[in-house]
Amino acid sequence: MAAAAEQLNCAVSTVARRIDGLEQALGLVVLHRARGGATPSEAGLAILASIERAAEHLNQIPRQARNYQQFKSRRPVRLSATETVINDILLPRLPELRAANPQMLIEFESSNAISSLEFGQTDCAIRLAEPDQAELITRKLRPVPMAVFASAQQLAGRDPGELQLHSEDIAWIDSGLGDIHENRLIQQLGIGDRIVLRATSVRALALACAQGQGLAMLPRYMGEDFGLTPLDHIPITARQGWLVYHPETRNDPTMRKLRRWVVECFDHKLAR
Question: 195-199 and 77-81 as β-strands: parallel, antiparallel, unpaired?
Fold first, then answer.
């Protein structure tokens, strides 16, 4: 209580009085007081979690204020996606969006986390794992064809059909990215011990594969761009992507233009 009072620059009695008022208003005990100090109750911990989420929203106010001050006539639109999606799928067609909407201020955020959308840090997001937040709207994008690739160095003259994941070195996506298809596949096959390199960047995996450091699961367009050999005998399903956005932006004209452009980018890049 004393530490909280010091941080808030007020008296301990003021903190105690405000907590008492909160408990009376809610009809709950949020803090258990004891001689050794105060600890949150179960209800208090649940309320604290909600407050922390709300604080994340409030923390966006300074950023929004700066944007409005700097661009008074334009509201920035912020799009979150993986580095690969931004660089390979979206940016090549950015001139079309800018030509049709010269006043649109676009901010790209390279991220794998859906939390940035939940906390109001971005307006819409492209995710390769289906979000389960009921309060968000999701739309399927054109799937990304995938394959396991090998370099000529790793093939070493062998028939590509002979190579198997359980007997070769593997360069794989970072396990910290969560429940995505690549990580589920490694668990299903039980070949985690074959991994010699992990990275959050898919392009880094492609570079490692091209240097003969291991087989890598990559988007087909990327493996082809690097001159790698697909191992088509290893069945790999296409990666489904989702465009995720807030319900309140459903009818926003600027956001609708941005979402339509995202869909066109995926269609154009992956239709081949």
Answer: unpaired
